[in-house]
Known about the structure:
Helix content: 40-55%
CATH architecture of the largest domain: 3-Layer(aba) Sandwich
Number of domains: 2
Number of strands: 6
CATH topology of the largest domain: Rossmann fold
Shape: elongated
Number of helices: 9
CATH class of the largest domain: Alpha Beta
Structural class: alpha/beta
Radius of gyration: 18 Å
Distance between the termini: 9 Å
Order of helices and strands: EHHHHHEHEHHEHEE
Strand order of the largest sheet: 3-2-1-4-5-6
CATH superfamily of the largest domain: HAD superfamily/HAD-like
Amino acid sequence: MKLTNVEHVFFDLDHTLWDFDRNSALAFKEIFQEHKIELELNNFLEVYMPVNFKYWELYRNNAVSKEALRYGRLKDSFDKLNFETTDTTINNIADLYIQYLPKNNHLLDGTLEVLDNLKDRYQLHIITNGFEEVQHQKMQTSAIHNYFKTITTSEAAGVKKPHPQIFELALQKSGAKPENSVMIGDNLEADIIGAHKFGLNVIYLNPLEHQIQSLYPQVKKLKELLNYL
């Protein structure tokens, strides 16, 4: 069912448009090879990905700092794998990861098709909890920066999704009204519930088909957004 009266489309970035998992794996592969980290990459990623998810949840809830997230997700992963290393090495890998990550440019399937379809009919925007210094680089490297009128990061807002203040800032920057806007993202709490509480229309990108309340429209693939927009 088409959404009516929508003029502004707000996207999350990581895991919604930008293929975070694939690009992250490539960054770690490069780091491990260059610095002779004797770990099998897939074994590391199997442990790291849920640890990283946990730390981002803590970061979103202001339970850890950005620095603690960057260090802790690596330290915990290495500990789980019984891989002995030093704090100096961990901090070095953490810094290199932030440098290498945005050099990779893979997008989720359907991203360019959807953006090309929407760009002339809506004003497009980004709202992201990702770090200020890397989100713009990711979008430049993957050639999607020019699709978006505004980019609102949690660091610029001083709060993270689902806090209402980040949605308020994004709407102020864009000149949009909640009732004329839709938020699209992969995180139910941060993107969907947060935006819905602020009055935006929402569409949940749910590739793993998590069970959710039926009041939120959802799609499994990005191309399905065109059924709504």
